[in-house]
Design a protein that fits this description.
There is one protein chain. The chain has one helix and 27 strands. It has 348 residues and is mainly β. The strands form seven sheets. It has a four-stranded antiparallel β-sheet with strand order 2-1-27-26. A four-stranded antiparallel β-sheet has the order 3-4-5-6, with no helix packed on it. The chain has a four-stranded antiparallel β-sheet with strand order 7-8-9-10, with no helix packed on it. Strand 8 (106-110) and strand 9 form a beta hairpin.
Length: 348
């Protein structure tokens, strides 16, 4: 399983990135290995417009993938056999790619009638995907318009073989978040399920046991969850109230202090009782957007992925002041393993 990016925002603005950048996978054109403060993603040649309202950013570890509303796809980072490279893939045969899901090795692409898996290392620098498609699943029915990729009719898509896994129709899946080795599922009645590896307590069942099949997170049963996110070792969800629920393993204080396991969901307090509307998890850090457009981050910060201009970690949510200082309203956030991407609008 692999962490996935959030859906594209619905209003125009700009994308920013910060964190691990050794291969140019966070902010193209910046030579530094670490981007400690938000840097704006700029359009490159004939490639995508990372600030356009219909764009989506989907990060892996050494590269990132961008999807445009017209169906074109852009890679930057370690691609085409080298670091700080870029690949632009235009529409094929006048068809439009509808969504993407990426990992270090594979890119899953959603089309109207199928899902394809592309082998990222074999992608041609010219953008030719011939020979890169290693797996295809044809879709036999219309997708439920109220569900989001990687959910598809009958199951869901992952970035590890066999790429498709069935789900029981009784679950009535609405939304799915894939972590490093576990998954969270939100149903149409807003019930939360989790399964996969539980060795860091990230499933929220009060133990470190694995779960082969989706299991209700009993500690949250009866609470209508609204947003979910899954990282490598932890999970987070919100029910629209001013508090978030967190389970799993994460850094407490600075990197050199210690690690704790929180196997039951625990409330996270935010300054001023703020209400969260977007959440995302990286490998060992978390980000949340408030309804008033402010961004808070916490967790491991060794590569600047918290956006505070330093490499300190934080065990409490901290406001990313860059956006408020520049009069930017944050609309969305997507955490990569060691980096963070933010969509914001406004500015001086």
């Amino acid at each position: 399983m692999a962490a996935t990016g959030a859906a594209a925002p619905s209003t125009s603005g700009r994308w920013f990135g910060f964190g691990f950048n050794r291969f140019g996978q966070t902010v193209p054109g910046v030579a530094a290995d670490r981007v400690l403060e938000p840097g704006q993603l700029a359009a490159c040649g004939s490639g995508p417009r990372p600030g356009h309202s219909k764009d989506k950013v989907c990060p892996a570890w050494s590269h990132s993938a961008g999807w445009r509303g017209d169906g074109s796809i852009h890679f930057w980072g370690f691609v085409a056999d080298g670091p700080r490279h870029q690949i632009y893939i235009n529409n094929r045969d006048q068809q439009r790619c509808r969504d993407i899901l990426t990992s270090e090795k594979y890119l899953l692409t959603l089309w109207q009638d199928r899902v394809e898996c592309w082998d990222v290392p074999s992608l041609c620098p010219t953008g030719d995907t011939m020979g890169s498609v290693i797996w295809t699943k044809h879709l036999q029915e219309e997708e439920n318009p109220n569900t989001a990729f990687p959910l598809i009719p009958g199951g869901y898509i992952t970035t590890t073989p066999p790429f498709y896994k069935p789900l029981s129709p009784r679950l009535q899946a609405r939304r799915l978040a894939l972590g490093g080795e576990h998954a969270l599922l939100l149903t149409f009645d807003w019930t939360l399920y989790s399964w996969g590896s539980g060795r860091h307590g990230q499933l929220g069942h009060g133990s470190v046991e694995d779960e082969a099949e989706p299991r209700v997170v009993e500690a949250l049963h009866g609470l209508a969850m609204a947003e979910i996110a899954a990282g490598t070792w932890h999970s987070i969800c919100t029910n629209g109230s001013p508090a978030l629920k967190d389970a799993g393993e994460g850094n407490i204080g600075n990197v050199n202090v210690f690690i704790s396991i929180q196997a039951f969901p625990a409330l996270l307090d935010f300054p001023g009782e703020l209400e969260m509307c977007k959440v995302s998890c990286g490998s060992r850090h978390t980000a949340a957007v408030t309804r008033c457009g402010k961004l808070y981050t916490w967790g491991w910060g060794n590569y600047g992925q918290l956006g505070h201009g330093q490499t300190d970690s934080s065990d409490v949510p901290r406001l990313v002041e860059y956006f408020t200082e520049n009069h930017l309203r944050v609309m969305d956030v997507v955490c990569g393993p060691w980096n963070t991407f933010v969509f914001a609008q406004g500015g001086i």
